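Team,

Forwarding the record for the chain on the shared tracking sheet. I've put the sequence and predicted structure together so nobody has to dig through attachments.
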Amino acid sequence: MILATSRVVHPYQLNYVATVAKQAEVDLLLLGGDVVISENFIKELSNIDILMVSGDEDDVHTIRLAKKYNVLLDGKVTEVGSVKIGGIGAISTSLNYSTIMSSSEKIDVLLTHYPPYGCLDRQPPLYVPSGLKSLRILLKTVRPHTIFVGHSSRPSAEYCEGALAVGTQNLLVLADSVKPGRIRFVPLGRISI
């Protein structure tokens, strides 16, 4: 079971993510950027594989912590179980893209902060595509089954170059597997301070 989310910025939200991850008995937690993680959070979920990509609003502390615990996936492909996962973060997006593209290795899941062009990328108020064209090219090369997008304001899923693209911003997305199948959306909610 996979749990994917992004835009987790308040400690209460982080605690909620940890609670759901444990109760749902997830194997893999994917963080799509714009998150504020802590050492306690990583240690509390030590029996779950955690991977994250950088977001455009992540602070230096979060990135350093992710590197320290080897959970930062920017520009890398890793294998969890028998699932190959690649990551494109918001920091050095073009370098991440080049690194993964040069390996031309087939992956099962792509975790990206920014959406591919034309997929989950129409932002209000004009609703013009704002995604990255380079990601569309990458999708044709690495052919993932599923794409988890961190920077998508729409809580939805749609097909993009044959892969299921799922928006995770302000949501907890529970997926039974990496292949398109049963996906559940749980609102993360905004905590007022």
